[in-house]
Write a structure and sequence with these properties.
The structure is a homodimer. By secondary structure, the first copy, chain A, is an alpha+beta fold. Chain A is built from six helices and five strands. Chain A is globular and about 45 Å long. At the A-B interface, helix 2, helix 3, helix 5 and helix 6 of A face helix 1, helix 2, helix 4 and helix 5 of B. Bound molecules: S-adenosylmethionine.
Chain lengths: 136, 136
C-alpha cells in the first residue's frame, strides 16, 4: 500500500495521489469471520462491501468489535454501514479531510464515474501527508 | 472529544493541542468483550491497557477483529500489543505523524513524565488538522 510522492508544487494534493490503490472487498453475504480475516491478512481496518460488483456498504474493524460487544456473529450485511460516504479521485485532500471529520469516519472509498471502487483513502494516508506538507 | 483551536501562529502544533483528552482504559485482566464494549460506548478504536494504573498495552478494534478471525475470545492481555509506542504532549505533530507512519499505527497514547496516560492522539486528529493547516 504505497503512497505516491506528492507533486512538487504548492497545490493541495488530490485523492488519487494519496489513496491506497489495493482495494479489499468482501461480498455482503459473507460472514464477519471472513471480513475479519481479510482485515487481519491485509492489515486493514476497512473493507468495501460489494453486491454484484457494486459498492453497497463498508465494514470496519470497529463494526466487528461492535458485533463482539453485542454478541453477534452475523453476516457482513448485518454489521456493515449501508450509507457509504465516498469521494472521487479528483477531489482535493482538504475537501475530503473535511468530509472525514464531518462524518466522524476514518476512511472513505474512492469511486470512479462508473461507481467502481478504485481505492481507499484513510486518515492515516492524510496524516502521512502532514509529515511533509508543511516542510517541503 | 473536542480539539482545541490551533494557535494562530505558523508553528507546527504540539500533541497537547490536538490530542483527545478523554482517556479510555481497561485492565489487562478484562475480557475482550469488555474492551469491545468500551470501544462501542465511546466510539473509539483504541483503548489503553493498564495494570496497577500503569500503561502495559494497547488494544484496538483491529486486535478484536483479529481475535474474531482467529476464533479467540480471550482476555485483553492475550490480544493487546505489549510494546506500546507512545509520545509526549510537548512533541510536535509532524514528528509524531512520522512515528505513526513508521510503525503503521493509527493512534498513540500520550504520556506525561510520570508515565501516566493523559491523552490519545489519532491519525484522525492529525487529518482534521489538515483541513485548515494550509489555509489559515
Ligand atoms: C499494525 S496496525 C494495522 C492496522 C492499521 N494500520 C491501524 O493503525 O490500526 C494494528 C496493530 O497496531 C497495534 N497498535 C496500535 N497502536 C499502537 C501503539 N501506539 N503502539 C503499539 N502498537 C500499536 C494494535 O494493537 C494492532 O495490533
Amino acid at each position: 500500500q504505497s503512497t505516491k510522492p506528492m507533486k512538487e508544487t504548492n497545490k493541495t494534493p488530490v485523492v488519487r495521489d494519496v489513496m491506497g490503490e489495493k482495494v479489499i472487498t468482501v461480498d455482503e453475504s459473507a460472514g464477519i469471520i471472513e471480513a475479519a480475516g481479510l482485515m487481519k491478512q491485509n492489515e486493514r481496518n476497512h473493507v468495501s462491501v460489494l453486491s454484484n460488483g457494486k459498492l453497497v456498504g463498508i465494514i470496519t474493524s470497529w463494526d466487528i468489535s461492535k458485533a463482539v460487544a453485542d454478541g453477534n456473529t452475523d453476516t457482513v450485511n448485518a454489521c456493515m454501514t449501508k450509507n457509504v460516504i465516498t469521494c472521487s479521485p479528483d477531489e482535493t485532500i482538504d475537501v475530503v479531510a473535511k468530509r472525514l471529520t464531518e462524518f466522524k469516519i476514518s476512511a472513505i472509498p474512492v469511486i470512479d464515474s462508473n461507481q467502481n471502487v478504485i481505492g481507499m483513502l484513510t486518515s492515516e494516508h492524510i496524516s502521512k501527508l502532514f509529515t511533509r506538507g508543511k516542510h517541503e
